[in-house]
Write a structure and sequence with these properties.
Length: 176
């Protein structure tokens, strides 16, 4: 897939979302980038390296879980669910409590991490790539994913986005 500019890529700032890559693992090890958005300064990626499913968010923390297929080859669904956490207070007083990242292997949770950090007002303008990371890479990986093995990537955006308008404006002004 061609490079997608950030301003038309899924807006993951201050919201919950789920990313899932449908792949077909053949004989041998599958390795490479499934999806990458941003760059080494601010971004996220989901990739496989040395038999591990890894997600990394530069503004949060890295997580990894080993992929243990039932068969040496076959169709897999690998992903991450990011849940925006808010305090249980009246809507006018709700504050961001961070995010919970949960790795998914075939739709089942495979580990989670909770952090105060996340993409609240800005994500890098480097854009989004599927199956590779064309710009300044988000993380340390070598090759793109075998395009024949990557069937599709879906990004399911939840409707709980709550952007801080002043913070977004300040981020835009700083960028200029």
């Amino acid at each position: 897939m061609g490079h997608v500019p950030t301003d038309v890529a899924p807006d993951v700032r201050s919201r919950s979302y789920t990313i899932e890559a449908h792949i077909e693992i053949g004989e041998g090890d599958a390795e490479g980038v499934l999806i990458a958005h941003g760059d080494a300064t601010s971004g996220y990626s989901l990739y496989i390296k040395d038999g591990m499913l890894i997600t990394i968010s530069i503004s949060a923390a890295a997580m990894s879980r080993e992929i243990e297929p039932q068969d040496p080859a076959g169709a897999r669904r690998l992903g991450v669910h990011v849940e925006r956490l808010v305090r249980k207070e009246p809507p006018a007083r709700r504050a961001n409590r961070g995010q919970r990242y949960t790795l998914l292997i075939d739709g089942e949770p495979a580990g989670s991490l909770q952090t105060q950090l996340g993409f609240h007002t800005l994500i890098s303008w480097s854009g989004l790539d599927i199956g590779r990371d064309r710009s300044s890479p988000v993380s340390h990986y070598e090759a793109p994913f075998d395009h024949r093995a990557l069937l599709r990537v879906t990004v399911d955006m939840h409707d709980d986005q709550k952007l801080d308008g002043e913070g977004v404006g300040n981020a835009e002004m700083a960028r200029q």
